[in-house]
Amino acid sequence: MKIRKLIVSQRSTLTHRKPLSNFQLESKQCLSSYTEEPELEGFSQFIDSLKNYEKSGVPKDAGTDSDDGFDLGRMKRLMTRLGNPLSNFKSVHIAGTKGKGSTAAYLSNILRSEGYSVGCYTSPHMLSIRERMSVGKMGKPVSSNALNCLFHSIKRSLNEAIVLENGCLSHFEVLTAVAFALFAQENVDIAIIEAGLGGARDATNVISSSELDASIITTIGGPFLPHIDHILRDRASSMFSPIVSASDAGVRTSIKGIGTFKGRPSQCCDLVIELDHGSQSSIELRDLNLSMLGTHQLQNAVTATCAALCLRNQGWRISNGSIRAGLENTFLPGRSQFLTSKEAEKLGLSGSTVLVDGAHTKDSAKALLETIQTTFPDSRLAIVVAMASDKDHLAFAKEFLSGKQLEAVFLTEADIAGGTSRTTSATALRDCWMQASRELGIEVIHDRMTRYRELFEDNFISSTRDSKHETIVAAQNSLSDSLRFANQILRERTRNELGILVVTGSLHIVSLVLASLNR
Question: For tag attachment on the chain, is the N or C end more exposed, with fewer CB atoms within 10 Å?
């Protein structure tokens, strides 16, 4: 791959600038969530009738081995009722608080590149619930027809289990059981299973030691369950399977440059792993092209590679070439994803550089900013943010405000898992960002100031009185409006410099943007 600096042109609008107060949306189109195929209507209604903790929030201590923890016995009894599907294949279990989905995708594609039939179960989904379950040698989500047929074949057993458990089986527990039944039905060689909430009582921990070939622990951090690293390691150790950690020694990596690979922005990396378990646990990959950007994604690739080497030590046939191919063929939407010019145009953002990323913690915000700095070091940013109520909004805001690239922040709202109970209001987020700016001693122009209103009435946003370029912070309930206003401010202020419009704060706001591109 030829390494080069990515250059994206941005059309200037200096010849005729409209007052923002009169700025009209270029399209009447509103951003809306993805709708499942009619064929899955019965399945969707069934699943949606169950308690969904992604929508309502996970109770405190739910994953711990305590009286307040989820009852793992429910899953064990459900597995028995479904004929113990886990006994039909080997599994790799992935736990942690960050990077699980990317690691699962990397490892699944490594195994598929070797020719194995792989089941992969992850959460949450971006558009369709089918994305949570991929099966076979191609890595595509389960088809609507296959999922619908499976559901109807086990619906009676699921209903009986729900009655037996007094209605306590959850949305995630049943989806997990359906995935396991699917993998057994399709005779997969191996399944890669991502934990949900994590901890000892996660529904995916129903996997027994005889069914488990490796346990992976990714990055631990953020406002999650107390002592989760200890919980995960204890759980993995009790399963008597090899433990693969993101912090394993013997790893050397570097990002050599940014370019394009197979039509996508990519980072060219060197990856060298020398573990202490013999020659089968060593690999050297030079000029590796990863389509998922950032040092954190390189770390996820390392973790997946260590897991592949661990499996190879156990007798699984996995070549170095398959490891390279699997890593290079992996791409997940919503992770440092730059939209194409056609996609930006469809959003009414013609000529703009748009980046969508599901960052929702301080650490993931830092990783996102580092990725932008590496890819476009001289760029200016306008960001549109929506977040769930159980995240550390203040720490997230401080990470962005501490940078020197930020022109505007529009705080908006997005449903979480199809509901509003975990949605943070735009005004609450705005107040949090104002607090962050005060604590950092940073001046901002916010939407409660007279100066903000005057700015929006000014035909010349980049006029002398705005020459200091203080960050604009505003609440806007409409995501569609937020995108267009943020884009207008960015284009007016950056002039001939590169500006990037970033949509972030959760995978749910990213999902809304991507869903509008698939209508």
Answer: C
- pLDDT at res. 199: 65
pLDDT digits (tens, 9 = 90+) for 483-511: 999 999 998 888 778 899 999 999 999 99
Summarised one tens digit per residue, pLDDT across range 27-85 is 334 566 678 889 999 999 999 999 998 888 877 766 666 656 688 999 999 999 999 99
Residue 303's φ and ψ, nearest 5 degrees, are -60, -45
CA within 13 Å, CB half, 46: 19
Q: How many helices (H) and strands (E) does the chain have?
A: 16, 16
The model's pTM: 0.89
* DSSP state for residue 50 in the 8-state scheme: S
Question: Of 216, 245, 274, at which residue does a domain stop?
Answer: 245
- Please tell me what DSSP assigns to residue 497: S
Is the separation of the CB atoms in 250 and 302 below 8 Å?
Answer: no
Residue 398 sits in a domain of what CATH number? 3.90.190.20
Task: Reply yes or no on whether the pLDDT at 25 is more than 70.
Answer: no
The domain in which residue 149 lies consists of 39-50+70-245
Burial pattern 201-239, b for ≥16 Cβ within 10 A else e, equals: bbbbbbbeeebbbbbbbbbbebebbeebbebbbebbeeb
- Residue 333 burial by Cβ neighbours in a 10 Å radius (0-12, 13-18, 19+): middle
